[in-house]
């Protein structure tokens, strides 16, 4: 197990290295200059660019960049919050993004699981058809459309919750109320995905031979479903768990802008727009890190639920 | 033969259909048989003939789209077709148990086998310690070496034959009196098949079980069964004792089954005849005898009316117009005659 984890960690480090290298070249190939004030004299512009090594060939810049990176020196922001270390900016924006994502996940999973189980148990009934319609609707409508609709109807028309995120720092009731819409907007599509996936899996396990055997040994349909079918149908759920985290994270970039959430999502947009390279790279690096860690965690937890993986069974 | 004549299970005129998108599938069309105490009854027929469906009806595990249209299943005086799910949970496992074709998929892949055996006992409120004790005894009884260690293992750590042993242990856990084996050896290697057959025979004797043994392979039947019922297109077309079916078969379908059965003596493959044609589509059950289109002895009446069961002896019945007093005399095919002669010869020797 330990060997497996350390192998995975090494693979992760290599992946991260590739990601940041790619990021570096991608970000630096964006057109435009950080100095975009046309009134600035040309020699000042050149001096500013020289300060950030922007006048050197890209490969040289890359070597500087890697050197900084390996010493965990992520640099300072150039434009979004000049001279503030990027690390501090991210630290500042992170909590609200994490709060939003975790709440969305906490909301998505149980509801998606319950809907999926209900649809499978009530297969081909009105409940199933109703849920199916919801699934199709929420999978096909993008989250920002849902966000805009929610904002317009629930916040603007009905005035039930604030239109934008409350600026309060602590997680108070008003703050929470203003977070409801972004959470919903982030969750609906994911709930639909979980529902659809779990329904399919559970229908299959419900028809499996071991369900028949479980019933012939005297378990009621209910007991057999609870003890055998549902747990087995959860295993493949781990497959969509990682994409789900990614999709909530990336959905948050747009949703945060719609609801003016001062989080990582809006930060990354600002950084890209301002050509604030160190900040952009740091934010993207951070996203990648979260992604890789969640893949690792999910892979490890796979083993916890499925003995065939834990014990390295061949078949 | 240890059988007496007390029937503990009777299936009468059972009709089962399935609702499907393309229409009603008439899977079982008037099945009739009884199972006597302590006997092994083999049900033989090509795949799709309705063997599994009939027996799933006995244990009450038909899928939701199934309808029992007609007939009844009498077990100890009660009609199982009228049973509710709750009543069925009372008798499943403890009175009537069933094992399935594919041991690879009959066990829950993520639950320890020991726990899966115990579960059968635990749902009947037997304490954990006792259930564990009995599960281990069962594992010994079905021939699992090193049961204490195996108890803690998962199905993927077992071979197919060992898994089928575990499945049998589960089926036996609550001491049923009827055991239905639905093609229990079909998915296994030949050598393993023989071992599992021996095991079933052995536990049948030890526990005086009444066994329904489903198979599509007549070759297996001679070994395990006391009586044989031959099933075709949702009906039982011939039944009798093993000897009657093997040495004095009356139904042309039974003939074809016997002829197409591989035999140690059949050296040249030309004698191994394959039954021509395919079983009928049960969405549109044919009028008359369902076997007629594949039967080279078929007469006009075969396409018009279903033959009744004709009595051959007290224990032997067959549904074929050939047994009608006015039917032309049709002889058993020569290949089959030769085989029967060979077999009789071997017995005499
Ligand atoms: N759940 C079901 N829905 C529709 N048709 C079914 C279902 N189960 C079985 N059948 C049909 O019933 C017929 C008999 O099947 P079965 O009893 O499994 O045959 P076998 O003799 O091979 O065990 C087949 O034609 C099969 O297609
Ligand atoms: S009844 Fe007719 S078709 Fe059916 S098996 Fe007998 S001879 Fe053949
Ligand atoms: Mg079958």
Automatic annotation (TrEMBL), chain A:
Lineage: superkingdom: Bacteria
Principal subcellular localisation of the protein: membrane
Keyword annotations: Cell membrane, Membrane, Transmembrane, Transmembrane helix, Transport
Transmembrane segments: 9-30, 102-121, 133-156, 176-198, 237-259, 279-305
Coiled coil stretches, renumbered: none
Keyword Transport in annotation: yes
Membrane topology of the entry: Multi-pass membrane protein
Name of this protein: ABC transporter permease
Provenance organism: Paenibacillus profundus
UniProtKB/TrEMBL annotation, chain B:
Record-level Gene Ontology MF annotations: ATP binding
Subcellular location: Cell membrane
Protein name, per record: ABC transporter ATP-binding protein
SUPFAM superfamilies: P-loop containing nucleoside triphosphate hydrolases
Membrane-topology annotation of the record: Peripheral membrane protein
Chief location of this protein within or outside the cell: membrane
Domain ABC transporter: start-end pairs: 9-258
Signal sequence, renumbered to the chain: none
Record-stated family: Belongs to the ABC transporter superfamily.
């Amino acid at each position: 197990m330990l060997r497996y984890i350390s192998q995975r960690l090494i693979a992760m480090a290599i992946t991260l290295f590739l990601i940041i290298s790619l990021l570096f070249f991608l970000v630096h190939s964006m057109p435009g200059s950080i100095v975009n004030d046309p009134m600035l004299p040309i020699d000042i512009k050149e001096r500013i660019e020289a300060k950030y090594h922007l006048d050197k060939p890209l490969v040289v810049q890359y070597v500087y960049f890697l050197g900084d990176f390996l010493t965990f020196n992520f640099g300072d922001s150039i434009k979004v919050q000049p001279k503030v270390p990027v690390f501090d900016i991210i630290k500042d924006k992170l909590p609200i993004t994490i709060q939003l994502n975790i709440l969305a996940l906490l909301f998505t999973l149980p509801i998606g699981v319950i809907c999926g189980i209900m649809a499978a148990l009530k297969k081909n009934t009105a409940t199933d058809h109703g849920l199916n319609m919801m699934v199709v609707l929420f999978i096909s409508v993008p989250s920002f459309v849902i966000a805009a609709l929610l904002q317009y109807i629930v916040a603007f028309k009905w005035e039930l919750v604030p239109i934008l995120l409350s600026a309060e720092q602590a997680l108070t009731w008003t703050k929470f109320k203003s977070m409801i819409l972004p959470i919903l907007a982030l969750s609906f599509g994911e709930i639909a995905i979980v529902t659809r996936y779990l329904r399919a899996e559970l229908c299959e396990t419900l028809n499996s031979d071991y369900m028949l055997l479980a019933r012939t040994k005297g378990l009621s349909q209910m007991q057999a479903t609870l003890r055998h079918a549902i747990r087995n149908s959860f295993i493949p759920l781990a497959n969509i768990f990682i994409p789900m985290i990614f999709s909530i994270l990336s959905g948050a970039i747009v949703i945060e802008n719609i609801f003016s959430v001062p989080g990582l999502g809006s930060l990354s947009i600002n950084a890209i727009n301002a050509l604030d390279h160190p900040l952009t790279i740091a934010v993207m690096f951070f996203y990648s890190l979260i992604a890789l860690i969640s893949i690792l965690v999910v892979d490890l937890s796979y083993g916890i639920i499925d003995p065939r993986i834990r014990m390295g069974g061949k078949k | 033969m240890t059988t007496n004549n007390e029937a503990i299970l009777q299936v009468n005129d059972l009709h089962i259909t399935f609702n499907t998108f393309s229409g009603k599938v008439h899977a079982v069309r008037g099945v009739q048989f009884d199972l006597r105490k302590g006997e092994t009854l083999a049900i033989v027929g090509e795949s799709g003939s309705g063997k599994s469906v009939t027996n799933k009806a006995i244990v009450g595990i038909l899928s939701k789209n199934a309808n029992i249209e007609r007939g009844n299943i009498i077990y100890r005086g009660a009609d199982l077709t009228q049973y509710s799910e709750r009543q069925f949970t009372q008798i499943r496992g403890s009175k009537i148990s069933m094992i399935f074709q594919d041991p690879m998929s009959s066990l829950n892949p993520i639950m320890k086998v020991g726990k899966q055996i115990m579960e059968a006992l635990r749902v009947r409120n037997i304490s954990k310690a006792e259930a564990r004790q009995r599960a281990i005894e069962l594992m010994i009884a079905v021939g699992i070496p090193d049961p204490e260690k195996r108890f803690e293992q998962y199905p993927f750590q077992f071979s197919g034959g060992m898994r089928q042993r575990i499945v049998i242990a589960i089926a036996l856990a609550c001491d049923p009196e009827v055991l239905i084996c639905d093609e229990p050896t079909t998915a296994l290697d030949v050598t393993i098949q023989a071992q599992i057959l021996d095991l079933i025979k052995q536990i049948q004797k030890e526990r005086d079980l009444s066994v329904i043994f489903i198979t599509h392979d007549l070759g297996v039947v001679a070994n395990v069964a006391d009586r044989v019922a031959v099933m075709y297109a949702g009906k039982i077309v011939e039944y009798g004792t093993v000897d009657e079916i093997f040495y004095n078969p009356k139904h042309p379908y039974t003939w074809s089954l016997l002829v197409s059965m591989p035999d140690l003596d059949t050296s040249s493959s030309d004698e191994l005849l394959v039954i021509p044609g395919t079983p009928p589509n049960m969405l549109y059950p044919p009028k008359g005898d369902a076997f007629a289109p594949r039967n080279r002895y078929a007469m006009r009446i075969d396409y018009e009316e279903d033959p009744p069961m004709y009595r051959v002896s007290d224990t032997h019945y067959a549904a074929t117009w050939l047994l009608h007093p006015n039917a032309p005399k049709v002889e058993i095919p020569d290949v089959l005659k030769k085989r029967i002669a060979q077999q009789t010869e071997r017995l005499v020797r």
